[in-house]
Amino acid sequence: MSLACEAKQMLEDDGAFVDALLWETHARLAHFAETGEIASIDLGGLPMSGRDREALDSILGRGEVSAAVEVAGRSEVWETGFSSVWRVRHFGDGTIAADLIEITSCPSILAADRRDADNAARRLAEALEAKLGNAETLA
Amino acid sequence: MRHDETLAAEMQRRGVSRRAFLKYASYVASLMALPPSAAEALAEGLAAARRQSVIWLSFQECTGCTESITRSHSPTLENLMFDFISLDYHHTLMAVSGQAAEQARLEAMAANKGKYIVVVDGSVPTKDGGVYSTIAGISNLKMLEETLRDAFAVVAVGSCACFGGIPAAKPNPTGAVAISELAGGKPLINISGCPPIPEAMTGVLSYVLSFGKLPELDHLGRPKAFFGETIHDRCYRRPYYERGLFADGFDDHGARQGYCLYKLGCKGPVTYNACATLKWNGGVSFPIQSGHGCLGCSEPDFWDQGGFYRPLPTPLGAMGPALAGAAVAGAALGVGAALAARSHQKTYLAASEKEKD
Amino acid sequence: MDLLAFARGPALTFATAIFVAGTLWRLVGVLALPPWRDLSPAREGAPPNWLGAIETVFRKMIPHKTFLKAGMFTTVNGYVFHIGLALCVFAFAPHILFLKSLFGFSWPGLPNGFIFGVGALTAASLVAALAYRLTSPVLKLISRADDYVSWLLTFLPVVTGLAAASHIGARYEMLLALHVLSICAFLIWFPFGKLMHAFLFVFSRGATGARFRHRGAQL
Lengths: 139, 357, 219
Prior knowledge:
The structure holds 3 protein chains of 3 kinds.
Chain A: H1 2-12, H2 16-35, E1 39-42, H3 50-60, E2 66-70, E3 74-79, E4 85-92, E5 95-103, H4 114-138
Helix pairs in contact in A: 2-3
Chain B: H1 7-13, H2 19-31, H3 38-48, E1 52-58, H4 64-69, H5 75-84, E2 85-90, H6 98-111, E3 117-121, E4 124-125, E5 134-135, E6 138-139, H7 140-148, E7 153-157, H8 159-163, E8 176-177, E9 188-191, H9 198-211, H10 224-227, H11 238-243, H12 253-257, H13 275-278, H14 320-356
Parallel strand pairs in B: 1-2, 1-3, 3-7, 7-9
Antiparallel strand pairs in B: 4-8, 5-6
Helix pairs in contact in B: 2-3, 3-9
Chain C: H1 3-31, H2 49-59, H3 65-68, H4 72-91, H5 93-103, H6 112-135, H7 137-142, H8 145-166, H9 172-189, H10 197-214
Helix pairs in contact in C: 1-9, 2-10, 4-5, 4-6, 6-8, 8-9
């Protein structure tokens, strides 16, 4: 790994890449503020080093919301220090499977889907009925 | 093995919310470099899809492709892929064997007529009526033809299925051919590599499943998302190439410094694959990072490109004898021409002497 | 067989064989002619023939002062693309690997970025040479098909090489194949056209030098 790091060093010395990414984020954020159009930037395919990622996250910082989602592995979601700019990081078996900057009011992975609600309502009813049943048996 | 329930309903029954589709979709979108906005459509497509019947045929192959797909790097996400498909036939992985296995294939074909996907690893021998590889007494040639008849699409996995691979390498004793030559116009995706990158296989299957169509392919039928760039283009050692810093041996100063392996025969510049970005074994490394040049395994005829250690700019084949012959012939012609000129000069001089006299 | 395999394999072998045979044919054909015998006594102070020949080979690298001004463009431009070509051919790492595979020895190369710049300058210089040839009335009059073919076959490897290095126009392996094929065309044409001057200029200048210096002419 050390060899790889050393070679990356050559690419890494200027922080221009992270700057470009931040400017893009800025442009999308301004556009979102104006029109409400959401956007996301996929960091997966970009030739980013660990240091680039750190630099990006240290500038974006942490905001008011942090959440963990447990579905098919872990996902971490947090709002950055800039309102409406979110970081969404999906893990699969400990390694990063997808890494995104999302510009939106709330990342869709956090929101519950209404189509799941139907099933949830049924399950809740079942749970309540079971509880009632238990109470009756006890009585 | 028909599946009438949508994947969303199936997952819901198991207490998994639609978030799973969203997460899986952003993973696949990221893998395939789809615009992140496509993730939502991908998730919707997957959720609404039925379990995809897949019939996996293994012909002249080494099972490396199966090893690869069953060892992909994010098991939790990967398990999802196996929840989305119904692997109705795979003679290495399935529990049943013999007649029961073949029965499973025929039943899946009948139940999902026109809808099932055939995945093939391995090439098909065509010489002598295809006797060189048979399964349950059926030649590969016949089994492929029979299984493809009612398939929706065929995915050739691995360089043997895509281009003939090692079985088709010179002198190709079994007359092995690629699946593309036998697909008979069925929609075909080639996912080459020896073996292919597991994420490429699952990514493509997910794409087909949720959008119901093939992803964008290159001129060799490979998905551009994974085969759109060369290893060299995305290689972390590329800056050394540009600076002219090369390893001259596998244990010299340059090798220890991690310099470019171009001089040691790396085929990265002409090899289209995603090893340099997705890497192998859960993103741990890829051949070049481990100190060996790219073999070019995802390209046609990679076995017959003059040797893995022959640098790319060197001529293929031995030029020595041809050049020696040419040198002798050229010199002989030259001597002949000079002798002719001399004799011409002599007669000319003699003639002019005579004239003087 | 794909185009690159064809180019690197049979095409390159065939072209190189033609190049070797043709070049030797012409060189041996010239050198095996009866030696020049001038029975006249040398002019006083004239150098021996061999020295006169060598002197002239170098002396002619700069035009005579009478023509210096008039020939300034062709001289400078000529130097630019000749040196440029030499650098591109002999100082680019992949080319050195090719030459090493033929001759068995190698030498250090220069960084790709530098060679790319030199290549671009060479291409521009070759275009300028053609433009000059097409606009100068005298040069245009004495130009034959050979001149244009030789120019084109020198120009093509340079532009295809630049395209391959910068991945412009097509996929890399296609550009590389075209580059190798353009060199094949260059090699095949080389012995039979004016490109042969690369070898013959030494002998023609030497022969001129020996004859003229023998007679006491200053060159």
